[in-house]
# Entry
Amino acid sequence: MGEVVRTVRVRIEGRVQGVGYRVWTQRTARGLDLEGWVRNRRDGSVEAVFQGAPDQVAAMIGACEGGPRGASVSRVEVIAEDGGGFSGFEVRETA
# Structure
């Protein structure tokens, strides 16, 4: 039987740009053996996709509620759960 994989797209709102949130997200996600990506949005939020073991994805969503030092997160919203194959975890250009 194959390994269960969960993929989620999240939006993080609050003071999350200009505080190292993307680099923190990449480091934290890699530490949890997750794949996917993270990017700033022009509306001031951060968007990310996390893919991996369901418990690790849940841990990452929880970690996003705190974020790095200097961040002030007001909301973490799962906006989609869908498939997709990713290799590694990357920081993407602002969308």
Notes: DSSP finds two helices and five strands in the chain. Helices lie at 21-31, 54-64.
